[in-house]
Amino acid sequence: MSRIPDEASNSPMSDNIIATPALPAKATSRSDVAGRVVSNVILLSLPEKEYEMLAPHVEHLHLPQRLERATFRAIMQMQGSGFRVRSEVFLDVLLRASSLRSELSRFGLVHGMQVAQLVACNRLHEINQRLARCLLMCQDRFDSQLLPLTHEFLAQMLGTGRPSVSLAAGALEAAGLIENLRGTVKILNRKDLEETACECYGIIQDFNVGLGLK
Questions:
Q1: How many other CB atoms are there within 10 angstroms of residue 163's CB atom?
Q2: Which of 66, 106, 144, 148 is 20 to 30 A away from residue 81, measured at CA?
Q3: Residues spanned by the domain of 59
């Protein structure tokens, strides 16, 4: 999911980080100055004129699973890659880029709706359903059967204890839906995992379609 984890600070070295989501089906291909493919849906949605304002300043970076920033904290659920733009450049471009402002506002609104849905989900639904939903959402972004997630980290994401996650993961494994490996969860049967997940997964998917994500 595209995200900007921390707000611009007064430090000249502060960055706005735009994480890289999966490439939507009919997106226009773009590259950064180093020739790397840009698959961020917000960057791909911009008119050429606005993208050219940002392109010389877009830097590729690796995002580890946990990313700590001063004052604000952002947590990467799984490691990946993304792009960053220096905050002073980003804010300057933002004043002149109406499409970028619109896309960021739309993303912020939809992301807020997703967060509200997940809060309700974690409060109301059974741990097996929530774990299934969480694993499906992670696979949508990571695009692999093997998800580098520990039970401890899943417990943090689901707002519960590690023993509860281990019990739920064991039940899903016994049903042939996943395989629990050391520090990794392997998806074996996505179709049945979707049937196990609560209705929140479908709702989140509808939100993602609105953002151009799969």
A1: 10
A2: 106
A3: 15-97
Q: Say if CB 78 and CB 63 are below 8 A apart.
A: no
User: Do 119 and 207 share a domain, yes or no?
Assistant: yes
The first and second tokens of residue 96, run together, are: 């002149």
Q: What is the mean pLDDT of the chain?
A: 82
What are the CA-CA distances from residue 22 to residues 64, 80, 143 (Å)?
17, 11, 8
User: Are 92 and 122 members of one domain?
Assistant: no
Of 97, 126, 149, the domain-final residue: 97
Phi, psi dihedrals of residue 66, rounded to the nearest 5°: -115, 130
Weakly modelled stretches of the chain, pLDDT under 50: 1-27
Q: What is the pLDDT of residue 214?
A: 62
Q: State residue 191's pLDDT score.
A: 96
Q: How many domains does the chain have?
A: 2
**CB contact at 8 A, 26 and 45:** no
Q: Are residues 84 and 141 in the same domain?
A: no
